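Researcher: Please generate the 3D structure of the following complex. Treat every line as part of one assembly.
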Amino acid sequence: MTSDPWFLIIACTIATYVTRFAGHTILSRFGSVHFRVEAALEAVPVAVMTALVAPSLVSRGPAEAAALVVAALVALKLQMTATVAAGLLAVVAFRAILY
Amino acid sequence: MDEASHTVKDELRDGFGDTVPVLVAIIPFGALFGALAAESGMSVAATVAMSAGIYAGASQYLMLDLIGQSAPAWSIILAVFVLNFRHVLYSAALGRHMDAFRPTGRYFAFFFLADPLYALSEKRRRVRWLRPAYYMTSALALYCIWIAATFLGALFGGLIENPATYGLDFILPLFFVSLTMAFRKSSNFLPTVLTSGVASLAAWATLGGTWPIMIGGAVGLVVAAVLAKPENRQDKGEAS
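Model: Done. Output below.
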């Protein structure tokens, strides 16, 4: 290790905390926002989470991609625990079949 | 249930109840982080401090990876800042629905605003309202479990021989799919998912690094803004 881990931990803690409050600090200076900004803010969970997960559709392999599709379909009907469990079963099963 | 009959106790119960499935999903992820950190030579105290301070799973994995490569400190801090930049959007979006919080309380609350808490809180405020009792119950449950899982992983992680056997290495993408699908009844869900997904994949294939999150997220937001109609501004897009 070239740098002191404690220095890194403190610096990254501060950097992360700044990202967690800065959006509110900036936006709360504006009284009301344009309806398009409003729509973009409403879309934050969907847009950001999709962008987070999309690379794992192709970066891992066909078994993992298929398991993500299974999880998305199960999520149409069932809650989170069942969705994650079904996805885990699917990834183990597809890996056994495909690899 | 109307506003008056909904007590703090109900908020606590709902907050905990909604969070339990997420706790189950993050335990293996936290334990795996603890195990990998210990394996890479990080002390148990430093490992737990990473989870308690940074409290962002993906960034913590990235830090371990970069420390392992002996990357310079400034590049590690920059990489963590860029990877976490999506949180700016979280507090911008959620902060407007936190009227029930005191101003200083909000800044305390934002410390805990990781991906799962953001998803739970957004869903909550769309189906009902967001109150401090609900938010902090969920926040502290997630935070304590994350730290406990890291600690146990750092101590006993060597016992998990091969996480791939149980598919545990893949739990996080599954978890994010489930979080995303919880918003499937939001307005313009499909165009947002498709465009941010395609943009994220394109950025992954060409630029790599943390670009897929930045570019994919930005494209999805722009599409949502372009598709918005003035008369839809009150449409909250009920989460199911």
